[in-house]
Write a structure and sequence with these properties.
The chain contains two helices and seven strands, in the order E-H-E-E-E-E-H-E-E. It is an alpha/beta fold. It has a four-stranded mixed sheet with strand order 1-4-3-2, covered by helices on one side.
């Protein structure tokens, strides 16, 4: 394994069931497979990287996540093509998931940046970007 590649990212979530339902289908579309599952958590893996979702303890749920505070702003994933971005966009819409920056979609990141932006159940912004 090369130095510096991301090993895993772990996100604490307010509702594990909602988050795993949301992330499960999306990560499967990207080629991730279920990796670990335990009471209070689940992960998906693609090659040497995995994403972990853990239920936040009740005592820490008083301050909700906001991407404009210190910490994580968003997660961005590679898409193999613009067509794949379009396919996922349609699936997001079918699932009732709001497309962020819809007035500028799919060029919300700039005229040469073809992507779809949306939010998970905790409002973590997710980006899928084509080459």
């Amino acid at each position: 394994m090369a130095h510096g590649l991301i090993h895993h990212i772990e996100l604490y979530v307010t509702d594990l069931n909602k988050s795993t339902a949301f992330w499960g289908w999306f990560l499967k579309e990207l080629g991730y497979t279920p990796f670990q599952k335990w009471d209070g958590g689940q992960s998906w893996k693609l090659e040497g990287t995995y994403l972990v979702f853990v239920q936040t303890e009740e005592r820490f749920l008083d301050i909700p996540y906001h991407r404009c505070r210190v910490g994580l702003n968003h997660l961005a994933f590679h898409a193999s093509s613009r067509e794949f971005v379009d396919e996922i966009t349609k699936k997001l819409q079918q699932k009732g998931i709001t497309i962020l920056y819809s007035d500028r979609h799919p060029f919300a990141g700039g005229k040469d940046h073809y992507a779809v932006y949306f939010e998970d159940p905790d409002r973590v912004k997710v980006e899928l970007v084509a080459p």
